[in-house]
Amino acid sequence: MNDVAIIGVGLHPFGRFEGVSAMQMGTHAIRAALADAGLEWKDVQFAVGGSWEVANPDAVVSLMGLTGIPFTNVFNACATGASATEACADAIRLGKYDIGIAIGMDKHPRGAFTVDPTLVGMPKWYGENGQYLTTKFFGMKANRYLHDHDISPMTLARVAAKNYRNGVLNPNAFRRKAVSEEDVLTAPMLNHPLTHLMFCAPDEGAAAVIMCRADIAHRFTSTPVFVRSVEVRTRTYGAYEVNTTFAPIEEAPSPSVFASRAAFESAGVEPGDIGVVQLQDTDAGAEVIHMAEAGFCADGDQEKLIAEGATEIGGSLPVNTDGGLIANGEPIGASGLRQVHELVHQLRGTAGERQVPGEPKAGFALLYGAPGTAGATVVTR
């Protein structure tokens, strides 16, 4: 079994780019990752790619060069990035290839994710009238969690304001304007307790991560970052979900819990070893919930930790240092690889103004995708 190292990362900025296709954004990210690793496209032996909007991400090779490499398309909703990372890392770990690339790209229209609900068995009109993957689910879930664990809406406002501040420091972010906690809290209410400014936005972007056998990483970089584990899990019970609620509201622990536990166990590290964290923050409530589900605190402890600044860039548990989804938005296929992009720069010490102090040695990323798939990744220096 080979250890796996990340030797190159690339990103197309997230936002709105009229006249630029998802595929073109994908090639931008690929070229940036190749430049970061000091490689050419012909050096890549295989690829894994994911997208929501692009039916065949493998077609990106037509723009990069027809070198004949194997290309596997993957999709797991918001957990697509973790799935691509896992497939790429495992192929190298098992010795089939030496160098590979994971790619994600998407170009979503404005508004809620209303694209083709028939893909998950819902009628077309369900999306057309705004009922597909809307804010309702997120609001109900956050409201129940805050009630059960005595957490105030101000905590949600603090999470969102922190992510907007971090986005200001990120030249690739979609939203790059600081927003005060008060403005977040008093913004128009979409679904209680979540206001408009507590949500991310579907948008456009691409990301790419190049990996290789760890024993050859020194040929390409003096600062490799090692993929210690990637674990993907699905639900064990219930369907308290975004788009297909056909089972009782009562549910077993989220797949985020099981994916996180498995990732830590496989990597041989504990949550306390992690110096920088990326959590799925489709809304501010999700970041709060995932802090506990991933094992970084007990349910309810988030209120105090967040109020004391633990999750700030200079805090004891920096979360979403690049602004997360709230500042970056979410092009689904690229979102998880953006998390890895940020962790790599943080562990290299090249994150610029948003660099976590103290030279973090390990990073963690968690994705959660409807209708109940979670992916957790641990990387180290």
Automatic annotation (TrEMBL):
Thiolase N-terminal domain location: 4-173
Alphabetized SUPFAM superfamilies for the sequence: Thiolase-like
CDD domains registered for this protein in UniProt: SCP-x_thiolase
Pfam family, one: Thiolase_N
UniProt xrefs under InterPro entries: Thiolase, Thiolase-like, Thiolase_C_2, Thiolase_N
Residues making up the signal peptide according to the UniProt record: none
Molecular function GO terms recorded: acyltransferase activity
E.C. number(s) listed in UniProt: 2.3.1.-
Thiolase C-terminal domain location: 259-374
Keywords linked to the UniProt accession: Acyltransferase, Transferase
PANTHER family linked to this entry: ACETYL-COA C-ACETYLTRANSFERASE, NON-SPECIFIC LIPID-TRANSFER PROTEIN-LIKE 2
Protein name: Thiolase family protein
Source organism: Rhodococcus gannanensis
